[in-house]
Write a structure and sequence with these properties.
The chain has helices at 2-32, 44-52, 54-59, 81-85, 89-115, 120-140, 146-170, 176-197, 200-216, 224-244, 248-269, 275-304, 308-333, 341-359, 365-386, 389-410, 413-431, 446-468, 472-498, 501-526, 529-547, 562-580, 590-618, 623-644, 653-675, 678-701, 703-711, 718-721. The protein has 722 residues and is mostly helical. The protein has four domains: 1-22 and 88-219, no CATH class; 236-386; 400-498; 503-620, no CATH class.
């Protein structure tokens, strides 16, 4: 009964295949035997074209050639890769139908088992027969019904894989070695068909069955050597396919299959004893997929010029491989073999850098950046696992600088980019590195040395980045800004660490007052507008710092103390920076900024002396003298600004002088008249009157020159010119 049923089914399937083939041949034969079209059989539009060109035919010495219909092809052309990937709703219905048939076969197996109709061997033979028949039908129909043929072939591959799995796992009819061999043969058949038909779907289907074998055909015991060797050989086979048809998707599927098989095995059987076998598998798998994949990528590029999508996909593939290598190495070795982690990281760096060398001149953006990223990352990881503390900080800075230098030498942006990234990572590490007990000397300690080294490296790497490409100017400007701020922070921290209390405050004030003008000068000669803006911000911060700095009452002397000295230096700093912005090669809009800086300088000095008078008389003395001196200082300071204002570039001091005269008048008439004693009040009013009369007399005598002077015309007396 079982044999008869199996024979009948097989005969019916082969008869259906033969009948379909015969019908297809008859259709093609009938199409090729059709007689050529006569003139009377021509369509109306053909008559119109002939009528429109009849004069051309009449002028010709030869009669017009007889219009023959296009010859019908004997068979349909081979489907292209684009047509295979154009998935229509009918193609999906076909695939769903094949899947339904496959499920029907599975349910038939179950029903046959329940009813006892078919023995175990008969079930296996039936599965092989049906699967093989599906593959044959797909091959026979590949020209006439290409979409159906691919789905039928895929269904046959699935049935064959399931049959082998059932024979081993359900019935124990095959030994494990035979089952593995049969499944490998089915996968090889699927891959061969995929290459022949240029079908990625068939290749993935065949490879899926091969990578599923360790899971489907497992005996439940630890077979590390068998399965890891088997997966390695599969990876070699996939790479061999890649030399004929380079499919990044197939490489990615091989990677996923390797990770899944290794992950399932490691979760169940990984121990300290078999660690090195696992490490060897991880290293060999990464080297095969990345290095050999780069070789195939280069070969494919040379022959077919791949597009952007292939570059992006292969770059993503190499990133996934690097992540697998890093995570596997860390999980396998960190707990019991930590000392070997740096060596394994360096091995990963070698794999990725050699792969990068193979493809870097192809100028594939994503691939180059992905390979160079993991090459640099593995070097950094090796340093991190080998060194610690400040030693690692110094090594990380060295890696960044060397990477930038290599990028400059070979003119590759990837090196300088990852060098900058490594440098910014080291910046965070160095900035939060604490002072140690041995860091006692000012500037001569490990913390400041690291921050100074970071500053110098930032400037160098930014400069090298700008030399490689035009877009590197922005990176250089950012690096210079970060370097300027970093040096400012570094010395500020060192001052705070080395000194305490008022000494630290005065030291910070001195540094914050001196550094901004120097930085502004460097920005000016280098024409770095952004860096000049940072210097300006620091300049105002320094002025505010000094303004709120306390006096040292123990050593205080009028105008001869640290705070007044720093405020005077801040005034000079404002003036020096304003002179930089008055240069001819600056933009016209910078003149207003220069005026703001000059006004800031005048206000800073005015407040500094005024506060000195208030501070001096706060220790004792007459309030009348203090108020009188304040009034006198404001009047005298206004006169000084009036005298200085004719100097070129300082015309803004005319308006500032008038403001101080107004303040002095208001103070004398509104405050001094009530607060001062009679004698001081007399002196205050007389001095104010003398100054105002002198200004009035000068105005009446030289009215035109004064008006022009106040307007900034700088009218000069002709007699003086003579």
């Amino acid at each position: 009964m079982e044999a008869i049923l199996l024979v009948i089914i097989i005969i019916l399937l082969f008869w259906n295949s033969s009948l379909s083939s015969r019908i297809g041949r008859l259709e093609r034969q009938s199409q090729s035997n059709q007689p050529p079209a006569k003139q009377s059989d021509l369509a109306p539009q053909d008559y119109q074209r002939l009528e429109a060109h009849k004069d051309v035919f009449a002028a010709s010495s030869e009669p017009p050639a007889k219009i023959e219909p296009a010859a019908q092809p004997a068979s349909l052309p081979e489907p292209t890769a684009a047509s295979q990937q154009n998935i229509s709703p009918y193609a999906w219905l076909t695939r769903i139908g094949i899947l339904a048939i496959a499920l029907g076969v599975v349910f038939f197996y179950k029903y046959a088992i329940d009813q006892g109709w078919i023995s175990e061997w008969m079930r296996v033979c039936f599965g092989f027969a049906v699967g093989g028949l599906f593959v044959v039908l797909g091959e026979l129909w590949k020209n006439k019904y290409p979409k159906y043929a691919y789905a039928i072939s895929g269904g046959g591959i699935l049935i064959l894989d399931f049959t082998i799995f059932a024979a081993f796992n359900f019935y124990s009819l095959f030994p494990q070695a035979l089952a593995i061999g049969l499944m490998a043969m089915v996968s090889a058949l699927a891959v061969w068909l995929s290459i022949k038909r240029n079908s990625l779907a068939l290749a993935v289907l065949g490879i899926a069955g091969a990578y599923a074998a360790p899971v489907l055909l497992s005996t439940g015991s630890n077979q590390q050597g068998l399965w890891l060797t088997y997966v390695t050989l599969l990876n070699v086979a996939v790479l061999a396919v890649g030399f004929r048809k380079f499919w990044v998707e197939l490489l990615t599927f091989a990677f996923i299959g390797s990770v899944v098989v290794f992950g399932i095995w490691a979760a169940a059987f990984s121990t300290t004893a078999n660690t090195w076998g696992s490490v060897a598998f991880v290293a060999v798998t990464t080297a095969l997929l990345v290095f050999a994949g780069a070789i195939e990528f280069r070969r494919h590029y040379s022959s077919e010029q791949p597009g952007h999508s292939l570059d992006k996909n292969f770059g993503l593939f190499t990133i996934l491989c690097g992540l697998f290598y890093y995570m596997s190495a860390y999980l396998l070795l960190d707990q019991n073999f930590h000392s070997y982690l740096p060596l394994l990281a360096l091995l990963g760096a070698v794999i990725y850098w050699f792969s990068y060398v193979l493809v870097d001149r192809l100028d594939q953006y994503n691939t180059n950046y992905a390979l160079s990223f993991w090459g640099t990352a593995f070097v950094v990881a090796a340093a991190y696992w080998q060194f610690s503390g400040r030693t690692f900080d110094a090594v990380l800075i060295a890696i960044a600088v060397i990477s930038a230098i290599l990028g400059y030498v070979v003119k590759r942006r990837e090196f300088s980019t990852w060098g900058l990234v490594a440098l910014y990572v080291s910046l965070l590490k160095v900035a939060f590195e604490p002072y140690q007990a041995t860091d006692t000397q000012f500037l001569l300690n490990g913390k400041f040395a690291l921050m100074f080294l970071e500053t110098a490296a930032m400037v160098l790497v930014g400069w090298l980045s700008a030399k490689i490409s035009a877009g590197g100017d922005k990176a250089m400007q950012l690096s210079e800004i970060v370097a300027g701020i970093l040096l400012w922070i570094a010395l500020s921290l060192d001052i705070t660490h080395a000194y305490n209390g008022l000494g630290a405050s005065q030291g910070l004030g001195l540094w914050w007052v001196i550094y901004p003008p120097v930085l502004a000068w460097l920005a000016y000669i280098g024409k770095r507008k952004a860096l000049a803006g940072v210097a300006l911000a620091m300049l105002f911060l320094g002025a505010l710092k000094v303004l709120f700095m306390p006096y040292d009452n123990a050593t205080y002397a009028l105008l001869f103390n640290a705070k007044f000295g720093l405020m005077f230096l801040a005034t000079i700093g404002f003036l020096l920076v304003s002179l930089l912005h008055n240069q001819k090669d600056n933009k016209p809009g910078d003149a207003s900024l220069a005026d703001v800086l000059k006004i800031s300088a005048s206000l800073n000095l005015w407040f500094a002396v005024s506060w000195e008078i208030v501070q001096f008389y706060s220790f004792g003395g007459s309030e009348n003298v203090r108020n009188l001196l304040l009034s006198l200082w404001w009047m005298v300071y206004g006169v000084v600004l009036m005298v200085v204002s004719p100097v070129k570039g300082f015309g803004v001091y005319r308006q500032v002088a008038i403001i101080f005269f107004s303040l002095a008048i208001a103070k004398v008439f509104l405050y001094d008249v009530a607060a001062l004693e009679t004698g001081y009040r007399i002196v205050s009013f007389i001095v104010l009157g003398v100054i105002l009369l002198s200004v009035s007399f000068a105005y009446q005598k030289n009215k035109e020159k004064i008006v022009g002077f106040l307007k900034g015309d700088n009218v000069v007396n002709k007699s003086n010119e003579k």
